[in-house]
From TrEMBL:
It comes from Ligilactobacillus salivarius. It comes from the Bacteria. Residues 6-63 form the HTH cro/C1-type domain. SUPFAM superfamilies: lambda repressor-like DNA-binding domains. This is Transcriptional regulator. InterPro entries: Cro/C1-type_HTH, Lambda_DNA-bd_dom_sf. GO terms for molecular function: DNA binding. It holds the Pfam family HTH_26.
Length: 68
């Protein structure tokens, strides 16, 4: 569910995973976002979620809302 929301925003903003990582202050070779995409990160840290939200210009609440 989390990755679905991240991916939706990436598509809307025409942004790649690498671009998102760089905007989050991670190195180009950092695998964090790929690990999140692949389900290897089950419970992302608050810090990571804040970086994702800031980089995608959304509030943390965006990720808390359920898509019914």
């Amino acid at each position: 569910m989390l990755w679905y929301k991240v991916q939706k925003l990436l598509i809307e903003k025409e942004m790649s995973i690498n671009q998102l990582s760089l905007k989050m202050g991670l190195s180009k070779n950092n695998r964090t976002m790929y690990q999140l995409r692949d389900g290897k990160i089950k419970k992302p840290s608050f810090e990571l979620m804040c970086k994702i939200a800031d980089a995608l210009d959304v509030s943390l609440d965006y990720f808390r809302k359920r898509d019914d």
